[in-house]
Design brief:
Blueprint lengths: L5 E6 L6 H14 L4 E5 L5 H12 L4 H26 L2 E5 L2 H11 L4 H11 L19 E6 L2 H8 L13 H17 L4 E5 L4 H14 L4
Parallel strand pairs: 1-3, 1-4, 2-3, 4-5
The structure holds adenosine-5'-triphosphate and ligand LXEULUCI.
């Protein structure tokens, strides 16, 4: 029988350094004999990648942004995440729903309760052919939150690439996004592992591994 699927998400403000560590983790899981599905949000399917292009580059209000994120997520769950978990894969997802709470909720000030309602709708296991899912709401098993002061992240991103709509926001926006992540982590402490990302890459990599080893995941 295939090993039970494992769903890990990676979160943090832009430039926190999460993408830097995802490939190395994928290699570690493969070395342990696991199949890995690497994916991201918004995105991960042809439809959701189209939504990504719109959401990251077109101006729109916070409700439109939130609805697009959840629509893309539903497609991503149906076509990629749920089938991968059913196969027993380790799913490594660069951002998931906590990003919607942090960016649209914290950063843009959109109603937290309404986001919770949308989360229940979009991540409802019913209709996703997910008989293996015990809980009605599909959530990551563990979320690694790369926490870093916005000024540090901005310095890392400066000149690295042409900034998108979110990356062009001022530090105050990212202070609010960071507070959104903190609120989410406080509400679901068993699902979150906070990684101090304001350290050299090697120290962050050690902290990531320790978080997984401590929970018996690696
Ligand atoms: N610990 C670190 N110290 C210094 N620089 C770092 C560290 N980790 C990553 N970087 C650099 O910071 C930049 C952003 O890193 P990365 O792309 O991994 O962040 P990210 O969280 O995935 O960002 P985004 O969400 O915007 O894609 C890259 O240039 C990367 O090389
Ligand atoms: C899932 C999700 C993402 N965002 C924002 C966060 C980032 O600024 C971009 C994605 O870019 P990345 O380079 O892949 O990190 O989108 C958001 O606002 N809401 C969401 O739900």
């Amino acid at each position: 029988m295939a090993a039970r699927g494992l769903f890990l998400s990676f979160e943090g403000i832009d430039g926190a350094g999460k993408s830097t560590h995802i490939d190395a983790l994928a290699d570690a899981f493969r070395a342990a004999g696991r199949q890995v599905t690497l994916t991201r949000e918004p995105g991960g399917t042809p439809l959701a990648e189209k939504v990504r292009a719109l959401a990251l580059h077109e101006p729109m209000d916070a409700l439109t942004e939130a609805l697009l994120m959840f629509a893309a997520r539903r497609d991503h769950l149906q076509r990629v995440i749920v089938p991968a978990l059913a196969r027993g894969d380790v799913v490594l997802c660069d951002r998931f729903t906590d990003a919607t709470f942090a960016y649209q909720g914290g950063g843009r000030g959109f109603d937290w309760q309404l986001l919770s309602t949308l989360e229940l709708l979009a991540q409802d296991a019913v209709g996703l052919e997910a008989d293996f899912v015990q809980k009605p709401l599909i959530q990551p098993d563990l979320t690694l939150w790369f926490d870093v002061p916005p000024a540090v992240a901005a310095e890392r991103l400066a000149g690295a690439r042409v900034p998108d709509k979110f990356e062009s926001q001022p530090v105050a926006f990212f202070d609010a996004v960071r507070a959104g992540y903190a609120r989410r982590a406080e509400g679901q402490p068993e699902r979150f592992a906070r990684i101090d990302a304001d350290q050299p890459r090697e120290a962050v990599a050690t902290a990531v591994r320790a978080a997984l080893v401590d929970r018996g995941i690696l």
